[in-house]
Specification:
This protein has five helices and no strands. By secondary structure, the chain is mainly alpha-helical. The protein has a single domain, classed as c-terminal domain of poly(a) binding protein, CATH 1.10.1900.20. Helix 1 packs parallel to helix 2 and helix 2 packs across helix 4. It is rod-shaped, with a radius of gyration of 26 Å. The chain starts with 6 loop residues before the first helix and ends with a helix.
Length: about 110
Amino acid sequence: MPRSVNNVASRKRRKKILNRAKGNWGERGNVYTAARQTVEKGMQYAYRDRRAKKRNFRALWIARINAGVRQFGMSYSVFMDKIHKNNITLNRKSLADLAMNDPDAFKAVVESLK
């Protein structure tokens, strides 16, 4: 019985990897084995950094809220404690946006807590 190879599927599999590796320097973009390693590592980085991005944005929001609240003689931790005790349901993202882009509204939030 002749040997059966599924060349269509294997070509598709290789092509998918090479398309993902397109734009890489040298053989990383056009040699299958090097491209596969590059793509696999890149996907690991992408998975990791989708989670790290959430941490980075939260840290940015906290820094912005802290900077905005310090103008009114309050620390970030005291501000967030009062936010929670007064059942204000604004999250850090929206508070940071207020602190940056609408200082008057942010001032009203801070004044309502004092």
